Amino acid sequence: MSYHDAFQQGAWSTRKSSELFAIDKWGAGYFSINDSGDVVVTPAGSDGGPSLSLVEVAREIEARGMSMPVLLRIENILGSQIKLLHETFRKVIRDNGYRGVYKGVFPIKVNQQAQVVEAISQFGKEYNHGLEAGSKAELIAAISMLSNRDACLICNGYKDEEFIDLGLFAIKMGFQVFFVVEVPGEVDLIIERSRVHNISPAIGFRVRLSTQADGRWSDSGGDSGVFGLSVSHITDAIDRLKEAGMLHCLNLLHYHIGSQIPNISDIRAGAMEACRLYVELVKEGAPMGYLDLGGGLAVDYDGSNTNTHSSRNYSIEEYCCDIVESIITVLERDDIPHPTIITESGRAVVAYYSVLIFNILDVCSAEPPPIPTVLPEVDSDILENLMATYNNVSARDIQECCNDALFYRSHARQLFKHGHISLREKALAEDLAQHILLKISQLSRELDHVPRDVQTINRLIYDVYYGNFSLFQSLPDVWAINQILPTMPLHRHLEAPVRPAIISDITCDCDGKIDLFPGSAGNRRTIMLHPLNSGEEYYLGVFLVGAYQETLGDLHNLFGDTNVVSINVHDDGTYSFIRELEGDSVADVLSYVEYDIRATRTRLKRVAEEAIRRGHITPRERRTILDSFEDGLGGYTYFESE
């Protein structure tokens, strides 16, 4: 249902809002709209349980003294996603007679925040859910956080001597560590360091498959992939392990054909190819026992359930089924024992658990001032021509009126450039042209066929809502790769949203905007929002931001990390604030870019003292000014209400 159809068919309702913003499609059972018109979170998802109004949480956060924007983390969702993944694999394994088990691991690179890794370790304990580390820092973090010795700790990435030593010591302490060989030279280094410490390593090979998945990260697989061993590298590595008497250490085969894989056929093709390599490694004499399919389980960001970049054309159950069935199909030809299945699903585990909440500061409306009852007299007939066009707009002449409006607006701009009309006359001409275009746009909603030029106008007529956040700090993938992240008001869903809009952040950058949104009829360039009410905050949320966004953000315009609040929702519907982290102060972000804050204070004092000497300020004013600078250094980098 289009917005126009929904608006025309009776009073507005929460059902119409749900359809407009497609929340029931991308919300995955975690997010919906309640009867009061508020967006609610249900941390147990499709299993049911208590729901919580997000706008009520936002108001309580502010009542506690924390300003918007806030990154809200709902920790229960992490447990729900881990449970969903493991329980689905268990069901599929049982239904298909698979003679192995599933062990998931979380790639720390997807969200390295300590409280996230700690929560995943705790929620995943009963499922033996492990961690994946791609650097020494991540490995140390993983060893400190992983409390279950039966969970897997996968070591990916380039490894130097110190990296390998850390992993060997973890093995010594009882961890189930796998060194995944990424480049040929790592084999010799693993052999050398294991002999130095007299510790037997568990080795895996990362293979570069010929299978190449669709999507933004397709270069992870195929011949152009930069990670993983080629077939010739694999045979050479096997020979070196045999020569060292360490082939018994080869236990795992790993591959990764891309993150956010939208098409299930690519997942199945990759699994089939990898299983053939697994069979050959067993035939070479390696004990094996573990098959690590890497990441790729996609998140349906736009709710379309298609094989587009921001979606997926499969369910989690279909994902699990295709993997299990592929392994059975290939391995049973040669009577090979079924391995332990590992997947490194990071995005699917953490995407849903956090929401960026911010308030709207102001609106730049596309609605021009009212048309004056009497036009001023000018030398040109431009204003009369625009007024006549406005009066002539009709369904029959919509294309002609569109052409005239654009022509006269362009002509008015040329007249102004050459000094033939004044600034105020130009402003009135622009307003009249905008009135014509708005009238055309509104009329076009009633037409069965809308001319292409009018469709273009419709896409260009929108309000700009200024949000209290930085896109580059909190939503970097929206800017960098045009990632669609669901965005919608957190409240007022009993009212019809009547203003087409885009959302601008508060950075001084034209790229700092959200102008692509999911909807029931496909992705849209604008979002429908409510007019602001005087004296009332208007809260918006950007959802599914738990993967990558928290670490990739930068300091554009020196806007720092936002305030962070973590909550846990209880079975009785109450909730607790688990953690409250204050966002960066001005002094914090200045120090990040190498400003010495003490020296900065000294320079400000010198500037103020010079102003006294020149007679610009008094000593008493100096104190007030320096106190203001000091308050500014300690303040939040985002807009703060008085």
Topology:
Blueprint (H helix, E strand, L loop, with lengths): L2 H6 L5 H8 L1 H4 L4 E3 L5 E3 L10 E2 H10 L6 E5 L1 H20 L6 E6 L6 H10 L6 E4 L2 H10 L6 E4 L5 H12 L3 E6 L3 H13 L5 E4 L24 H13 L6 E5 L9 H20 L6 E3 L23 H16 L8 E4 L3 H4 L3 E11 L17 H11 L5 H20 L5 H22 L7 H9 L2 E5 L3 H4 L1 H6 L5 E3 L9 E6 L8 E2 L12 E3 L9 E4 L6 H4 L10 E7 L5 E7 L4 H7 L4 H17 L5 H16 L8
Parallel strand pairs: 4-20, 5-6, 5-12, 6-7, 7-8, 8-9, 9-10, 10-11, 11-12, 14-16
Antiparallel strand pairs: 1-2, 2-3, 4-13, 13-14, 13-19, 15-19, 16-17, 16-18, 20-21
Helix pairs in contact: 5-12, 7-8, 8-9, 11-12, 14-15, 14-16, 15-16, 16-17, 22-23
Describe the structure.
With 642 residues, the chain is of the alpha/beta class. Among the domains are: 99-346, TIM Barrel; 382-459, Methane Monooxygenase Hydroxylase, Chain G, domain 1, CATH 1.20.58; 598-634. α12 (316-331) links the parallel β11 and β12 (340-343). The chain starts with a helix and ends in an 8-residue tail after the last helix. The model has no long low-confidence stretch (mean pLDDT 94).
